[in-house]
UniProtKB/TrEMBL annotation:
<dbReference type="Pfam" id="PF05176">
    <property type="entry name" value="ATP-synt_10"/>
</dbReference>
<feature type="region of interest" description="Disordered">
    <location>
        <begin position="48"/>
        <end position="90"/>
    </location>
</feature>
<protein>
    <recommendedName>
        <fullName>Mitochondrial ATPase complex subunit ATP10</fullName>
    </recommendedName>
</protein>
<dbReference type="GO" id="GO:0005743">
    <property type="term" value="C:mitochondrial inner membrane"/>
</dbReference>
<feature type="compositionally biased region" description="Basic and acidic residues">
    <location>
        <begin position="51"/>
        <end position="90"/>
    </location>
</feature>
<dbReference type="GO" id="GO:0033615">
    <property type="term" value="P:mitochondrial proton-transporting ATP synthase complex assembly"/>
</dbReference>
<dbReference type="InterPro" id="IPR007849">
    <property type="entry name" value="ATP10"/>
</dbReference>
Length: 301
């Protein structure tokens, strides 16, 4: 009897478990659920510059993982990197396709309001590197080099709704700068500028479809813009990169005006208002003047 009692005293009871592992598990689960719960979207007016602080490289944010198997395994065991991956995953899970659609309908695509004037060069931040293939080749290229030395008007979109909404920004007077004839007019007025397309493919299926449409796109896009139209896999753009420029919805369009050093000087999204359109082209004219002042003897291409 004594031996049996001794053994019974050494067996852990259910009470021990109820105060340890279950409570720890539930606490962790609750924290995870809170992190992945969609937050109510608040439309703000951009006042501070957006972008990344460090000048990006053409290899940043590539959809292809350059790490070796050994490096991947080492990163897998790194607690800090695991924590960062978990935070990124939680952010992604809080922004489902249905959430994007809900926000798009609620805001009519105006996720934020554009600043009333463009940001000063010394305070502006860099446009992050996007990696994709253009209309001339299947080889991947980055936007960092593409944006250097030119004032760039970037239109970024994922869905057809966004692509259609973006067209309104490029109809100036009697010209449509996105047509082949209109782009010639654009270059006459803005000789040191370019229009860059970032067609962001949400998944592999859409990427196959868009790439299969390259020949059709080459017919409607001005020849000198073929290397400035990038098909970008969303896979390479983690949530932190997209958050840095407020590119956070699959259904609307985003317009960025970037100077010749790759810094974002103005941004907007959604259907254009008259004020948006006027401010966009006022910014382009202002950056053209800046560029000419810095390069007085340089002739445009």
């Amino acid at each position: 009897m004594l031996c049996l009692r001794t053994l019974k005293s050494q067996v852990p009871t259910s009470r021990c478990f109820s105060t340890s592992s279950p409570s720890f598990f539930l606490g962790k689960l609750n924290k995870h659920l809170q992190a992945t719960t969609p937050k109510e979207h608040v439309v703000i007016t951009l006042t501070k510059p957006i972008g990344v602080r460090e000048e990006p490289k053409d290899t940043d944010n590539s959809p292809k993982d350059p790490r070796s198997i050994k490096e991947k395994y080492k990163d897998f065991l790194d607690p800090e990197k695991n924590k960062k991956r978990q935070e990124e995953l939680e952010k992604e899970m809080s922004r489902s396709g249905m959430y994007d659609l809900y926000v798009y309908r609620k805001t009519k695509g105006k996720l934020f309001l554009s600043p009333q004037s463009y940001w000063k060069a010394e305070k502006s931040l860099y446009f992050p590197n996007f990696v994709g293939e253009d209309l001339t080749s299947s080889k991947l290229k980055g936007t960092t080099s593409l944006l250097k030395g030119k004032v760039s008007v970037i239109r970024a979109y994922t869905a057809d709704l966004g692509e259609k909404a973006s067209k309104g920004y490029f109809k100036v007077l009697d010209n449509d700068y996105l047509t082949t004839e209109g782009y010639d007019k654009f270059l006459e007025t803005n000789p040191n500028s370019q229009i860059v397309d970032l067609n962001i493919t949400e998944n592999g299926l859409k990427a196959i479809f868009v790439k299969a449409s390259k020949s059709g796109l080459r017919k409607v896009v001005h020849e000198s813009r073929h290397d400035k139209y990038l098909i970008v896999p969303k896979k390479g753009l983690n949530i932190d990169v997209r958050e840095s420029i407020h590119l956070l919805n699959n259904y609307t369009c985003f317009i960025y005006v970037v100077d010749h050093q790759g810094r974002i000087r103005w941004a907007t999204c959604g259907e254009p208002t008259e004020a948006d359109r006027n401010m966009l082209w006022r910014t382009v004219r202002g950056l053209e003047r800046e560029y000419k002042a810095l390069n007085p003897t340089e002739k445009p291409e």
